[in-house]
Structure formats: C-alpha cells, structure tokens
Amino acid sequence: MKILATLAVLLFCLTPVLGKLVTETVDYADAKSTPLQGYVVYDDAISGKRPGVIIVHDWRGLTDTTKKRAEMIAQLGYLAFAADIYGKGVRPSTVPEYGKQATIYKSDRTLFRERERAAYHALLKQPLLDPTKIAAIGYCFGGTGVIEMAWDGLDLKGVVSFHGGLDAQPLSPGAKIKPKVLALCGADDPFEKPADMKAFEQQLKDDNFDYVIISYGHAQHAFTDEGVDTLNLPGAKYNAAADERSWHAMRGFFQELFGKS
User: Fold this and answer.
1) Model confidence, pTM
2) Rounded Cα–Cα distance for residues 86 and 102 (Å)
3) Which residue segment(s) compose the domain that 152 sits in?
4) Which regions of the chain does DSSP assign to beta strands (E)?
5) Measured at the alpha carbon of residue 1, what is the angle toward residues 42 and 66, in degrees to the nearest 5?
6) How many domains does the chain have?
7) What is the CATH number of the domain that holds 222?
C-alpha cells in the first residue's frame, strides 16, 4: 500500500509533536443487541478532548486498510473510530462474500442507518472525544454509508464520501440536523449512474444541505484503494493522483469544520 505508507510518512513529518498512537478494540452493540467491534485510535501526545472522526469501511468490512486510514486520521490530531457495520466476527474474504454482505445493507437502508447510529453512540462514550465536534468519512460502501448518516440526522458537523454509491434516499423521520457534505467522486466511475448522481444532488438542494461535489478526471471506482487492482473488477482501479487529491480535499474540509486539518 504505497500511497497509504507515503501519506502516513508525510503526516508524521508534518506533525510537530507526535506521540505514540494508541489503538483499542471496542465492543459495542446496535439497538437489537447485535455484537459489533470497532477500532479506536488516538495520539497520546495530545492532551485534552479532541474532535472525533468515524470511518465507515468499504465492502470488505473492517480490514487493515480501514484501520490504516483510522491511524492516519489520528495522526492529524483526531480521535478516530473505525465502525463495524457487518458485525463482530463477520469478516468476508472473497469478492462474492464482499458483495453479499454489502448488498444486505445497500438493500436495507434502515438497517444500515441503525448500524451507523450504533457506531456514533459508541464514539460518544470515548472519554477523549469533544462531542460537539464529530465528522464521518467513508469509502465505497462506506461512502454510501456516511451519506446515510447525513440523511439520518446524526449530530455531525460534516461527512466525506470517497467514491461512494450516491443516490437519493428519504431522510429519517424527525431528522433536523444537516451536516455539511463533501462528495469525492471518480469522473469515470461506471458504478455511479448519472441518473442516481443527479437525484442525489437534487436531494441535497431540496433539503438545503451545504454541499460540495468534486469529480476527479480519469478516476474510476475505488480510486483510493491500492488493493483493488488485484481483484480485477472492471470499472474499479486505483488512481494515486485522485487518492492524494481527495485526502487533501478532506483535510481542507476538516479545516473548515474544526479549524484544523
């Protein structure tokens, strides 16, 4: 994972005081008592409470790739919480299994939101969190997920979707909080249907969300995922330039939300 390693080294060099990254496995549950297991990371050189960032995994589940992104977020000075949507011990390992698990939640957005709500409440229990400053980011499947969190009305300052499957979905009843939305998309992503993208943006307009949509030229689906090329999925390809640019876009968004990148 060359780009993840490069970005991690760069962040290390740019951080004035970097202590030891503390990692913890966190057991929690959804409203139906389904066991879930997340991953918390923070920099112990920073004192006091700090903004929190929920990371929603891609269709493979909570893998080392997601954990690495959580560690990169923690190096920026945030409390990172990698959510577990699939459930404790549910760790698919093949493309058919990835698709099967992802389809469960893409087909049942209520369940998807319930699992993300559980992650949000698990994060709230973290003693180092500043509960007034929370954002969420997600990749592919997780990129869809963070938009669901926005539709659900969770108390987030903003959400960042990296090459998520974007479409229009109804807001949860009573949803009043509307986080800012940053959608980072591949211009050549065949999995993002133009009609769905149009409906997605129209919903953002109709529901008066503050949003930005960025489209990266020549980038296909999963453009931040260095491992995707080994899966030989037509339409999904790693793009180093789009990966780096989208990460910087996220940092600029966080600067706007929290006053720090």
Assistant:
1) 0.91
2) 8
3) 2-258
4) 21-29, 35-43, 50-56, 79-82, 129-139, 158-162, 180-186, 211-216
5) 40
6) 1
7) 3.40.50.1820
Which residues fall within 8 angstroms of residue 193, CB to CB, at 6 or more apart?
Answer: none
- Rounded to 5°, angle at Cα 173 from 171 and 178: 50
What is the β-pairing status of strands 129-139 and 79-82?
unpaired
Tokens of 106: 């893409």
Backbone angles phi, psi at 20, to 5 degrees: -75, 135
Q: What is the DSSP string of 183-224?
A: EEEETT-TTS-HHHHHHHHHHHHHTT--EEEEEETT--BTTT
> What are 51-94's pLDDT values in tens digits?
999 999 999 999 999 999 999 999 999 999 999 999 999 999 99
Give 4's contacts (C-beta < 8 A, 6+ positions apart): 65, 68, 69, 72, 226
In 3D space, the residue among 46, 49, 74 whose CA is nearest the CA of residue 131 turns out to be: 49
> Per-residue pLDDT averaged across 215-235, rounded?
96
Residue closest to 149 by CA, chosen among 139, 140, 138, 133: 138
Rounded Cα gap, residues 109 and 61, in angstroms = 17
